């Protein structure tokens, strides 16, 4: 029974948003359409690609992508066609350009800053420590302070 | 110096808190239009038969000569009736308002216009939604302000409130009218 359940879980595949009537007859072209659709964000349900989304606008855009493929456009041309209308926002992989440099370099800058901080932290303290070793005899000043506390036995 | 290092994480926290706090005030649903200062994409769409005031539809080239509004609506749109009185007022003030029924069955658009009244000088049906994609429409209602030369100058996402009309759109239209 358990094996059956595990098998069912392993064999289950996510439901496809792409409907059979949208698909292109040529499997190679359809594969390209899927590949492009996965790069494009659905503008209605923003954290899904148009390949994942059931929104009507996502369906329209999938149809546009397939039409463009049938017209012989290349993948970058088709992605440019969509981003020309909806902006860089629809690209799930943001382009590298001056306004996104911080976005792309940010994690590495943080990593370097963290590593720098860690190295500075772990470096042994300089030996000229102001604290006297524990077994040193009391200085005159310290002896006076102890005497001022009084004899605990009295 | 050591004390400053101790403060560093707190400063970093405050900085991030401020950045994300400001980020929360932005609505991610509001996409900036790619069409600003670009000509209206070309289209020629059929009208909605027998709608009150509904004529033969219109083409993008006909929105020219004087600043106008292009309003995208649909009978299935929940916020459109809320915007309707404002559009009616804008039309009454003499601004041409063009209507684009997005992904709507023409009979439903007609019913909607009969129910609420038709504020538009012309109405066209974009049943397939292709013109809306060229316009970069993400939802309804959306409104474009088109200048004399047929270029898009402003895009309003969501219903126009009376305040937005008097404070933003109306002054912009006056400015566009004054342009050569």
From TrEMBL, chain A:
It is a single-pass membrane protein. The chain crosses the membrane at residues 101-121. Coiled coil: none annotated. GO terms for molecular function: metal ion binding. Residues 6-149 form the CcmH/CycL/Ccl2/NrfF N-terminal domain. It holds the Pfam family CcmH. It is found in: Membrane. GO terms for biological process: cytochrome complex assembly. GO terms for cellular component: plasma membrane. The keyword Lipoprotein does not apply. It comes from the Bacteria. Residues 1-17 form the signal peptide. Keywords: Cytochrome c-type biogenesis, Heme, Iron, Membrane, Metal-binding, Signal, Transmembrane, Transmembrane helix. Belongs to the CcmH/CycL/Ccl2/NrfF family. Required for the biogenesis of c-type cytochromes. Possible subunit of a heme lyase. This is Cytochrome c-type biogenesis protein.
Automatic annotation (TrEMBL), chain B:
Keywords: Cytochrome c-type biogenesis, Disulfide bond, Redox-active center. It is found in: Cell envelope. Its main location: other. GO terms for cellular component: outer membrane-bounded periplasmic space. The keyword Disulfide bond applies. One of its GO terms (molecular function) is disulfide oxidoreductase activity. Residues 34-174 form the Thioredoxin domain. Transmembrane segments: none annotated. It comes from the Bacteria. GO terms for biological process: cytochrome complex assembly. Belongs to the thioredoxin family. DsbE subfamily. This is Cytochrome c biogenesis protein CcmG/thiol:disulfide interchange protein DsbE.
């Amino acid at each position: 029974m358990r094996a059956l359940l595990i098998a069912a879980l392993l064999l289950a595949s996510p439901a496809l948003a792409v409907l059979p009537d949208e698909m292109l007859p040529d499997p190679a072209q359809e594969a390209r359409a899927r590949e492009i659709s996965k790069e494009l964000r659905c503008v209605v349900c923003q954290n899904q690609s148009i390949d994942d989304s059931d929104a009507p606008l996502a369906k329209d855009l999938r149809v546009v992508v397939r039409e463009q493929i049938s017209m012989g456009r290349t993948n970058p041309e088709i992605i440019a066609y969509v981003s020309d209308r909806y902006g860089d926002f629809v690209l799930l992989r943001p382009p590298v350009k001056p306004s996104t440099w911080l976005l792309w370099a940010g994690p590495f800058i943080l990593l370097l800053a963290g590593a720098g901080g860690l190295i500075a932290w772990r470096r042994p303290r300089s030996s000229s420590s102001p604290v006297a070793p524990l077994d040193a005899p009391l200085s005159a000043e310290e002896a006076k302070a102890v005497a001022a506390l009084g004899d605990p036995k009295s | 110096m050591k004390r400053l290092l101790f403060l560093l994480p707190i400063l970093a926290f405050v900085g991030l808190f401020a950045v994300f706090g400001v980020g929360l005030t932005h609505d991610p649903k509001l996409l900036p239009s790619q069409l600003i200062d670009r000509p209206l994409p070309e289209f020629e769409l059929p009208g909605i038969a027998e709608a009150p005031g509904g004529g033969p539809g219109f083409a993008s080239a006909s929105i020219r000569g004087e600043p106008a509004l292009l309003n995208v609506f649909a009978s299935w749109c929940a916020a459109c009736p809320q915007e309707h009185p404002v559009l009616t007022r804008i039309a009454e003030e003499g601004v041409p308002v063009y209507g684009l029924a997005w992904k709507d069955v023409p009979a439903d658009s007609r019913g909607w216009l009969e129910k609420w009244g038709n504020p538009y000088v012309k109405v066209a049906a974009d049943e397939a939604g292709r013109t809306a994609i060229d316009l970069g429409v993400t939802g309804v209602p959306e409104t474009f302000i088109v200048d004399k030369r047929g270029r898009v100058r402003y895009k309003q996402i969501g219903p126009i409130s009376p305040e937005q009309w008097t404070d933003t759109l109306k002054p912009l239209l006056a400015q566009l009218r004054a342009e050569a």
